[in-house]
Write the structure tokens for this entry.
Amino acid sequence: MNTKSVIKGRGAQVNVPNKFFELSHEMRDDFLEFCHKEGEESDKNKTLYLEVFPKTIVNKVESVDVGMAYSMNVYQGCEHGCIYCYARNSHEYWGYSAGLDFERRILVKKDAPKLLEALLQKKSWKAHPIVMSGNTDCYQPAEKQFEITRKCLEVFLKYKHPVAIITKNALIIRDLDILKELSKDNLIGVNISITSLSEDTRRVLEPRTTTIAKRLETVKILSENGIPVNVMLAPIIPSINSHEILPLAKIVSEYGALSIAHTIVRLNGAIGEIFTDWIYKTMPDKAEKVLHQIESCHGGTLNDSRFGTRMRGEGKIAEQINNLVSLARKKYFKNKGMPKLNMQLHEQYKDGQLKLF
């Protein structure tokens, strides 16, 4: 690893230009030299939390490639810093870069619980699983301070409404009390993202995430408390974690996971430039190989937006990855599966309490 040029604790190493802006900022060498001579920091590398005030919190998901119809994101941007994150592009809509800004400018929606409650009370709303973290992780470090996710879970419990969670943070265990209550009525499903069993790989791919040991422990604790867990082996990146599919599947099954899911990495929009810059700085010896193998999975390009193929890829390498996942399911998840969430109770709890008549 070329540690001299790596910004510690961050995934992205640059702020790429926002495609919606005509102008862009550049960190010039003469400015960096001036800071060095003056003993000043050119970049303080601090995370800022910025409150925003959306009018709605639940989004209808139009993509046919993801297994969700509705999602909600109580934070925009994510301090976890996963270099491959598809959500980076969405930060451009808020006026920021998909690079370092995505990790250091976290938008906080404190009104999320109130907005969620207003939606669930509507007569026109029919229960359907809502996924927390369809875009950014609802248990990222900001949640420890703001507790917005916990407050939203309290709303789901009050109205007996099904909810699913996607996270890679062990902070979810803090809310075990609410999750257990939701699970009594089959109203909760949890998806834990685990991309590698190697701490070295995790640190470079996902610099501010929970350790692998803690994530495995989280799968075990949730499972032992009757909360169904699916593990996301996502994304699979050729020559970085593609060799770990079977070992990952085996261990998460032993820790209690009921199923696994996967995607093959795709580097859409600004992520292609961010990832390319990152891999040449962190893995220079294998950068060309990894980039070419990713391209081979997506018709010769890093930027694959084709519905139907973008998540699973194509070509020999993608076929090998998909076949390995199929084998892992047959070998380690036979007669296992995630239960369907209960959508029958909510109508009786439209007002937050059981209707007797």
